[in-house]
Amino acid sequence: MIAVDAPRLLGRIRELGAVGRDDENRLTRLAASDADKQGRDLLVGWLRQAGLDVAIDRVGNIFGIWQSPENAGQAPLLIGSHIDTVIDAGIYDGCYGVLAGLEVIETLKASGFSPSRPIAVAAFTNEEGVRYTPDMMGSLVHAGGIGVGTVLAAVGTDGSVLGQELARIGYAGDEEPGFLRPHAYLELHIEQGPVLEREGVPIGAVENLQGISWQRVTIDGVANHAGTTPMSMRSDAGHAAARVITFLRDRAKGSNAPTVATVGSIRFEPNAINVIPSRAVFTIDLRDPDERRLRVEEAALASYLGQLAAAENVTVSVERLARFEPVLFDIRIVERIEAAAKKRGLGARRMTSGAGHDAQMMARIAPAAMIFVPSAGGISHNPREHTEDAELVAGANILLDVVTQLAG
Amino acid sequence: MIAVDAPRLLGRIRELGAVGRDDENRLTRLAASDADKQGRDLLVGWLRQAGLDVAIDRVGNIFGIWQSPENAGQAPLLIGSHIDTVIDAGIYDGCYGVLAGLEVIETLKASGFSPSRPIAVAAFTNEEGVRYTPDMMGSLVHAGGIGVGTVLAAVGTDGSVLGQELARIGYAGDEEPGFLRPHAYLELHIEQGPVLEREGVPIGAVENLQGISWQRVTIDGVANHAGTTPMSMRSDAGHAAARVITFLRDRAKGSNAPTVATVGSIRFEPNAINVIPSRAVFTIDLRDPDERRLRVEEAALASYLGQLAAAENVTVSVERLARFEPVLFDIRIVERIEAAAKKRGLGARRMTSGAGHDAQMMARIAPAAMIFVPSAGGISHNPREHTEDAELVAGANILLDVVTQLAG
């Protein structure tokens, strides 16, 4: 059984993770920044060293393509992820998937493997969405979900324009986005959650990606003196907001479903110690891998808000901020991942991705699936993001096995 | 039965209420500001017109004293309140009590009444505490609760020093604070709460003032991804805070006691839609007129926070921000207020003051009580603060009757 070159893979993860450090050693490579250019240059150098054809499209997506005269007419098998980061990031999110893709191709080349179709590795632009909106931008453009002109005109949090920045750093390529139509898409990623670590399972066979419902709720009551207003005469927007938070928690925790509900941000007005809040504004993040169940949860929330308005003498308004349907990955690829893990004597579990990934965009145009490896403490988007070397290597070998099958 | 001069009283309330308006007609007379000087000058002019001796103490408290050679040796009966305001204030809070005190004295003088002791009206400095801390400052100094040197050195929200500002506006007086030791103290005030209006009762005989317990609670959990962290593995500081809010509400509402509990301000960290809050910081305002019961409520809260920390896997720390014991007013004066209302055919109810007033400081050094009149909608500290003219006049006549008895 062939295996990836562990020192080469781990060394590259660390080398790329050293690019974009500030004076305090914090890692930040925002899309199309100078640090991103350095990271891209390093990656492209490795792609060329590996003898791959390098192609850059107009939105800056980078492709390293291994093809031969014999298979050049076939749709390629694509392995991808991203190398942009959040602010003060860890070194694994995204980069692991791209570098493992390269590693798999190099390993297969060196082994004398003769693929039936091209195998390519992609680094998609601006997956994190920190500097420019929307996130998962490069893969979304590739999948035809948004026009390239629109995103090139995107204005960043620093006032920059993406198209100008890509040109400045030398990554405004010539290829039309979507030029590479994959036969299938694979993405290897750290879990960014605690499940694999908690259960002691090294491989996640990701079968779907949660649907997301983001809402902003505004509750209006009446500001009144905290000392002079009897409890029975209050119209307390803050208290009503607290009821919603406990309702969501009790409902999600009491169910057997994988629904998760989070109130992550809140604001009271006037926000004074001795004034009953006249207004509470808070966000609700509801996720479920099943669209039908996500709708049931949204309806239950709406119904509760209606009852609350009457019971607490407040008015409630809801603004929808974002809504994504769940993504179903390709069951045949998921089964191949499980089988590959079994063959290597590694435990695997089917799981849902709670975070968004480029794979969800690519699933629109090709059979796709993801492989997860454990994240220590479930921590991500943070310098403490960590996965053990052996776990990283194990994940890359599963990717190797699945790629071998799909391109065999 | 004699009665106050209603047009004179109402006219002065409106005239004083016109002083300190900005371009948008918002009323703001912060302590020792130029607007406060204008208000003080107007008041002092009226005191002199009424033939009263005007005295100013070192903290700027203004006294208008009606005394005769016959009663000058007796401890005076003092009527007081304040004429400083909050930002964007109504015209009644404080001013009504001071101007009604003056009105009562003028009415008694004109009626040929010969008091057995001097009668004085006081306007205490910085009751609102908006510009300088602490609030109820002038009466606190008068009652010996804080040194005059300390408060004159107080630095305001605008960087000003109170002592310098009082000198600048001409109200750094010569009298030592506390020079006037009252026989008894009366304060007439708008309720600033909804009870009298709701019950259709024109006169409140205020028998006590709530004890106040202010605490700031900090709950620490663990920030995690809202999508990838199962409900069972969360340590959600925001949810724990919501539990405290609903606990306080359910406990206060389910009890027959007059306890009130308010969470008026809150903050989550990192306060992002898709991140489980690692920290929630919020304030708790607990009030009860009975010290024993207030302690029971504080203990119940502390016990709940302990349980919550264990159940929700969070840490809880509590900081005490302020603690005032309840104030008991003089029952004999309260009974006189009730009797006076009855005699004029006005309904009265005993009640608790939920807000702080100068009377609570004066109760430390003399028998004291307060008279309340209704506040429309319970609204105060707001331009919509309103009491009907007839209600204002009725309250002043009750003050007149009680003063007549106490100085008869």
TrEMBL record, chains A, B:
CDD domains: M20_bAS. Pfam families: M20_dimer, Peptidase_M20. The keyword Magnesium does not apply. The keyword Hydrolase applies. It comes from the Bacteria. Residues 210-310 form the Peptidase M20 dimerisation domain. Gene3D superfamilies: 3.30.70.360, Zn peptidases. One of its GO terms (molecular function) is hydrolase activity. Keywords: Hydrolase. InterPro entries: Amidase_Cbmase, Bact_exopeptidase_dim_dom, Peptidase_M20, Peptidase_M20_dimer. Belongs to the peptidase M20 family. This is Zn-dependent hydrolase.
